[in-house]
Amino acid sequence: MVAALLTLLGALLVYYLFYFIRDLVKNKGNWGNGSWLISGAIGFVTDFLDTLGVGSFAPTTMLLEITKQLDDDRHLPGVLNISHAIPVMMEAFIFITVVKVAPLTLFSLVVAAIAGSFIGSKFVTKLPERKVQFFMGCALIVTAILMALRQLGMLDLLGAGNEATALTGGALVIGIVGNFILGSLMTIGVGLYAPCMAMVYMLGMSPLVAMPIMMGSCAGLMPVASANFIKTGDYNRKVSLGITIGGIIGVIIAAKFVTGLDIEVLTWIIIVVVIYSGITYIRKGLQPARVAE
Question: Membrane-spanning residues where (predicted)?
């Protein structure tokens, strides 16, 4: 099953690269404005953070705004997806091959997230975005508190080990349903990383196991979305390529850092990430709803 998953991701990567390289060649000399150095630095920082589970979209958006790399804000969605597609795919390949996860668990949860993003999105996009973000944020904060109490030895509810690398029976069903829902929620701006980390931990699995699951899920989604932006030309080629190159370097360094961490240290990092994400979602949820133009 792991081989089948890697084959699927590899095929999606080839699909994405075909359109990306062809578009760069076709538009040689017309790659847009921006700085190679700044874009590369943005890619390095954001994909380093992405490998730690922080996510790359929000930091990239912030840094692009600060550095004024984009002349047209309409190119932002395309740049976010295209520039991070290869780094996220690398993250998935690295963690799927390095971190031990039961093949059935890994394959089931990744496919569930991919299916959720395509099938469930037809229904989830009709939900009130701000309310979903707010309640997801609250749930993440509560989860982070429970995780912290467990780490401090003040709560036995979450079990004694958190060393499992597989889900079975009812826990596997919960994981599949949960990741399907998380895949669906991605369509309205609720990132999969932090909720997936929290879910995996709450189901008793090792915190490190969340990495291949959440990265494999996103790696299956981004190439398709990126290809669509490339076909329409709605992105800045120079900035996207610069971020991609810097991001690849960031992933390689961060992956060595993460896989070498003690589980106790990694768990505390995840707690911080979950709290950060929870606060971000709550802030988004409290903003006025966007009015359709």
Answer: 6-25, 37-58, 106-125, 131-149, 170-194, 200-227, 239-259, 265-282
Which residue from 65, 83, 90 is spatially nearest to 238, judged by alpha carbons? Answer: 83
Q: Which domain holds residue 25?
A: 2-286
Q: Does residue 292 form part of some domain?
A: no
CA atoms within 13 A on the CB side of 101: 34
DSSP state of 56: S
pTM to 2 decimal places: 0.77
Task: Decide if pLDDT at 155 tops 60.
Answer: no
The total number of structural domains in the chain stands at 1
In a domain, 135, yes or no: yes
pLDDT digits (tens, 9 = 90+) for 279-291: 887 887 888 765 4
> Of 71-85, 109-123, 159-173, where does the model show the most confidence?
71-85
103: tokens are: 């093949």
Answer whether 134's CB lies under 8 Å from 281's CB: yes
Question: Is 277 a domain residue?
Answer: yes
Of the candidates 245, 217, 192, 246, the one whose C-alpha atom is nearest the C-alpha of residue 12 is: 217
Nearest Cα to Cα of residue 210 among 81, 62, 110 = 110
In whole angstroms, how far apart are CA 23 and each of 87, 233, 234, 246, 263? 19, 8, 12, 20, 43
